[in-house]
């Protein structure tokens, strides 16, 4: 399947295409490829973005693709081509929230064009599908090639919003390979391999066990929300749970504390999970030990401390984003 099919399949049936954080993740997925029926599998890495930061999911680059310096231009026939970003040409701006495209008949470099669009419009134009590609092509109205917002990046972005510094890209052979903008994991590639083989790639998906609420609420409201719609407030019972929780918080770009299923027994003073189960041997308290009964707030949250999320006590009436366990 192609990248868009893989992306849609993962988001419909799971959570998203997988993000690879370290050698262990890479080795686990590579083993799945080697032992399975797939020759290659799409992962969630994307080395191209639009000027506004959105990942590229529709790609009409047909020639002159280079990873050294690649800024995208739309040709008169609707195809895209990579040029050195310091080249000068006309460019297309757009207005956020509308289909209002503006062709600017001034020769500028890609970065100067980007600056002009952001100052006077919203940004350089983004193209998300074939229909939008045709609209932009019509707006060009016979001009020569024009700058659009497409740009190749030297570092990978991930479709699910995950933050990973791990990269293991090989252009022709090896485990992880870059196909223009998108990346796949594969067995050793034969010399005869070409991009037409990408139809044989499957999708490597992951399923998150965490739901992140879209609205802030008190701890009691969070308890009812998670119990009514999911399996309950999130319990973190191991370092693996903690790592996955931090990844999900970063994927969703959550700022500030988040509610989890910790609460304090007002009668006895010890901390328990919302369902009455005791907190096990593994803990991650901000101060290294649970807050004491007489001076503590009675509900538990995760809060970022020096780049890491730690358990802490909060006033139960405070309103935060909530983490639930998926059913």
UniProtKB/TrEMBL annotation:
Classification via InterPro entries: C-type_lectin-like, C-type_lectin-like/link_sf, C-type_lectin_CS, CTDL_fold
Signal peptide extent: none
Keywords recorded for this protein, A-Z: Disulfide bond
Pfam families: Lectin_C
Entry keyword annotation includes Cell cycle: no
Record's keyword annotation contains Disulfide bond: yes
Domain C-type lectin: 1-94, 96-194, 201-325
SMART domains to which the protein is assigned, alphabetical: CLECT (SM00034)
Highest taxon of the lineage: Eukaryota
PANTHER family: C-TYPE LECTIN DOMAIN FAMILY 20 MEMBER A-RELATED (PTHR45784), C-TYPE LECTIN DOMAIN FAMILY 4 MEMBER K-LIKE-RELATED (PTHR45784:SF3)
Protein name: Macrophage mannose receptor 1-like
Organism whose genome encodes this protein: Carassius auratus
